[in-house]
Amino acid sequence: QVQLLESGGGLVQTGGSLRLSCTASGQIFGSYAMGWFRQAPGKKREFVAAIARSGGSTSYRDSVKGRATISRDNAKNTVYLQMNSLKPEDTAVYYCALASGRVIATLLAHYDYWGQGTQVTVSS
Question: Comparing C-alpha atoms, which of 123, 17, 19 is closest to residue 73?
Fold first, then answer.
């Protein structure tokens, strides 16, 4: 089993920044992609960003491109999401996820393990 623990959420004003962290623990073997998703009230969970195990390949949803940076530290089994120029529409619960055996993944169905989520609220 793999456990994912997110941190770094909170309340921030429009234009502010946050850095989310997610640390994986448990039986982690081989290659795996990691990603961030988010879910706003009444909406479906949506892809935000993903990163390959090597860190050399990343992917972002269009609405966060230029404002978000995903990175990872494999020695710490940790993935980060730096979000800048935050907007009220970024308000959501942000989930970290791990996709076993994949180089990189952008589809929700490709992810095997999920964290509990961390709330990000952007005030206008």
Answer: 19
